[in-house]
């Protein structure tokens, strides 16, 4: 069974990926209920933390029901990253994760996220100093490399292990690819097959069906899967994957009543956590997937994603349940 430090995990654990404006406490709670074994926060700017920026500090909120939970930080300045680690420790997470994989330009241009893949010695040095700074297990999330000509992930993963990380999650694309094309899991398997690797190696990228998760386990030999976009607006994905791994059969999709109830809870938890305005706004991205596959749904979706008043959105949920309550999802 894989372990992150002293945290024991089940065979082939499923991890909720850190996703900005997605992996917040309300969504993590829903995913945890549906079988996520480890959840990660949205990535948090080290510079934002040390400046006590409200947008960064609020992301430190974690709750007992979601453990084990990792807080993910990003940055490229050593002093700032170490100060951020000190701040993060006060929130008492189970894991500290370093983001070396975000491909977004505003992050990369500061040499952070996937930008650091152009400077592997700095990547290793930052990691080494962070491991020394904390007693918590440190994990890393990264990509195959900067571009197809600079994929050295086998060497990079081993060097990161040697300075003390307890697990690594690897997205099967380069930074240049962003999210285009297909994820290539072969280099991740090469990391796992490196006889000097002792830590868990988790795969990420295009794990969007239960079959894909089984393939990642059986054909590529990885220790677990980190789930990202497939879970947005569909926290049931974790449960469906686990059911398929156990039985080889597909779990029946959630009913309309279950989807509406989850959407309601999601919105209410978001409002309770971050207030009416942000709660309404940042939950919008989930509704398309909550209600995916319903014909002639545009009118109701527009109500959900354009209203700034939660009462209107809750009313739209009621309308959907009344009109489409008997709809059978495929």
Automatic annotation (TrEMBL):
Keywords: Flavoprotein, FMN, NADP, Oxidoreductase, RNA-binding, tRNA processing, tRNA-binding. Its EC number is 1.3.1.-. The keyword Ribonucleoprotein does not apply. Its cofactor is FMN. The keyword NADP applies. Residues 15-312 form the DUS-like FMN-binding domain. It catalyses: a 5,6-dihydrouridine in tRNA + NAD(+) = a uridine in tRNA + NADH + H(+); a 5,6-dihydrouridine in tRNA + NADP(+) = a uridine in tRNA + NADPH + H(+). It holds the Pfam family Dus. GO terms for molecular function: oxidoreductase activity. InterPro entries: Aldolase_TIM, DUS-like_FMN-bd, DUS_fam, DusB-like, tRNA-dHydroUridine_Synthase_C, tRNA_hU_synthase_CS. Belongs to the dus family. Catalyzes the synthesis of 5,6-dihydrouridine (D), a modified base found in the D-loop of most tRNAs, via the reduction of the C5-C6 double bond in target uridines. NCBIfam families: nifR3_yhdG. This is tRNA-dihydrouridine synthase. The gene is dusB.
